Amino acid sequence: MSKQTSSSTKRLIAKLGLVAVGMFGFGYLLVPLYDVFCQVTGLGGYVNKGPVEAREMVVDEDRLVTVEFVANVANYAGWDFKPTVARMRVHPGELYTTTYYAKNLANEAVVGRANYNVAPGQAARYFVKPSCFCFTEQPFAAGEGREMPVTFYVDPDLPKHINTVSLSYTFFDISG
Amino acid sequence: MTVATHAEHHDGPPSSFFKRWFLSTNHKDIGSLYLLWALLMFFVGGTMAMIIRAELFQPGLQVVDPHFFNQMTTMHALVMIFGAVMPAFTGLANWMIPLQVGAPDMALPRLNNFSFWLLPAGSLILLSTMFMPGGAPASGWTMYPPLVLQTGMAFPFMVFAVHILGISSILGAINIIATVLNMRAPGMTLMKMPLFVWTWLITAFLLIATLPVLSGAVTMLLTDQFFGTTFFYAGGGGDPVMYQHIFWFFGHPEVYILILPAFGIVSTIIPTFSRKPLFGYSSMVYATASIAFLSFIVWAHHMFTVGMPLSGELFFMYATMLISVPTGVKVFNWVATMWKGSLTFETPMLFALAFVVLFTIGGFSGLMLAIAPADFQYHDTYFVVAHFHYVLVTGAVFSIMAAVYYWLPKWTGHMYNERLAKLHFWLSVISVNVLFFPQHFLGLAGMPRRIPDYSLQFAEWNMISSIGGFVYGASQLLFLAGVIICIRGGKKAPSKAWDGAKGLEWEVPSPAPFHTFDTPPLVK
User: Fold this and answer.
1) How many domains does chain A have?
2) Which of A27, A74, A174 sits opposite B212 (nearest CB)?
3) Which terminus of chain A is more solvent-facing, meaning fewer CB atoms within 10 Å of its CB: N or C?
């Protein structure tokens, strides 16, 4: 072939190179897409990532839903972290408050933050928290322990076949 | 494109060894380099497999410690996928695509040289991690966080090795697309191209669409580890499951990258030894394109157990099952090609036939895995290991061996030793089934993959599987011997080595001269 690569080949190479670079970017684009997709659909137990207005609604006195509270500590960090009650029987539509207890076992001040997840995923969008300790960073002095409140209600529209909802928190040390 | 008139183009290869092999821009020499490197890595990765099977020969820990076992399973996969199978297909593409489309060389010969030399560089970086503090990566080839972030010194080297091998494959793919689209001989329309060229063209598009996504995913791992990003760290708002989505968005098309060229090879060999044209040429092309398209929308079947909603499970289950339609078209076309043909059973044909039967078994176990509710039982068991070794060893690797035996006469100018090759085939095809078929039973009985020890009830099948593994491993030395003997001498091969063979590559002498098709042939 000739020493000079033909111009049509050069254009083709440039386009293909752009595709490759574009797909590298697409890999990164999947990150926000994934978040948006989960938030819109509530898939994977994603719940609204901030306080929500409590709205007036009719309390469904005939129905009882079990809410289970789970606590995890990430990376074996030095925390004692547990729900004060393990489960509650609640009426959909009624506002409840419960607490989690966290204690810093370390000899220095640390900042913690809780991430949360609702199971089953289908229940996620019906589980509403007007206020939660997980919306903010939680500073702890060395050895300090305290109870942290979470206010929630279960939307009466929760599908009928769901009788148990688990709320799981994972506590992370973010002072790092 | 103008016809070359420079005198240098009509010379033979450069006389200096360094100039010929290190600075080569010749598609045939670069193709040979790719194939030889792939052969070397096949034995390196194979040695790791032998260590795995030796440890699993009996229950309990006796040969290696568990951490080293995990390094072996991880490195075996990475070396075989990125070091052996992909380069072998690229080598075949380099050798055969210009010959099959009547082009004098690849579109970008110097880029071709660069693509090749990135391969040993990346492979050696990957292999060097075995000698680093903390050992080689041991988290499985899928590199899931957070486990992969516990890799020691080897972690950044693994990421860079994936980057380099990825760039090598992307550049190779761009070169192949440019060659196929711009350098075909006059008269060779797209729908007259040999199927090997077609399947490679589609594979090349898969490569440039998905390998950059893998590069992105491992780059995110790298920045998570060293630069404080939290793509996959829940404490910072990330999600480790997202890695699995991004990885398998690459990973599923990747398995078709590893098998589509094999379809092309088998579609070349079966008509030759059936002495009939391929049945359903255009349906083969469309089936290949359909498989490529579907490969982008099925990725989450690798992760049915992460906790997807029912609608997701159903979508990915049905989309996955849909793939068996175009694949079935291919299998039936191969069978129809043989129908009433004058069949002979030289070694390439034997490997191609074994491919059709055994790849189909792998396809069926894939269909079983696609059933989302059943997958909860099969997930991460030896059933999965059996499945993907049927499609990758008796699928991809057998097709490469078929291709090597088929085109060796063209490359070397000598016929290979048919008796030795047949011995290699029969030992391989029997031992590979002794090796992998019992793994179905182990998986269905619940033996997990990637664990160096197992319960006593799995002992018999594991021992049988290991024996099959050692025989299969040893038989590949016959392949090595056959290739070396064929390079060094043997019966002179005519330009058309197989009497039923069709295609431009059989119109040039054997061995193919250093420069071919300086004047493009006219295709009617």
Assistant:
1) 2
2) A27
3) C
Chain B residues with CB under 8 Å of A25 CB are 216
- List strands edge to edge, sheet with A138-140: A87-90, A65-73, A164-173, A110-119, A138-140
Q: Are B399 and B266 in contact (CB under 8 A)?
A: yes
pLDDT one-digit tens code per residue, A42-93? 666 666 556 666 666 778 888 899 999 999 888 766 888 899 999 999 999 8
pLDDT digits (tens, 9 = 90+) for B70-107: 999 999 999 999 999 999 999 999 999 999 999 999 99
- Whole-angstrom distance, CA of residue B12 vs CA of residue B515: 8
Taking residue B13's Cβ as centre, other Cβ atoms within 10 Å add up to 15
Residues A37 and A60 in one domain: no
B449 close to B74: Cβ distance less than 8 angstroms: no
Q: Is residue A77 domain-shared with residue A140, that is, in the same domain?
A: yes
Q: Report the distance separating Cα A160 and Cα B16, nearest Å.
A: 80
Active-site residue, from B95, B141, B200, B382: B141
A121 touches chain B (CB under 8 A): yes
In a domain, A168, yes or no: yes
| Active-site pick, B76, B379, B410, B424 | B76
CA distance B110 to chain A (A): 11
Domain boundaries, position A167: 47-173
Contact B378, B369 (CB under 8 A): yes
Q: Is B24 a catalytic residue?
A: no
Q: What is the ipTM of this complex?
A: 0.84
Q: Would A2 be classed as within a structural domain? A: no
Is residue A61 a part of any domain in this protein?
Answer: yes
Residue type at position A34: Y
Q: What is the pLDDT of residue B5?
A: 43
Return the structure tokens found at B167.
């760039």
Contact A13 B107 (CB under 8 A): yes
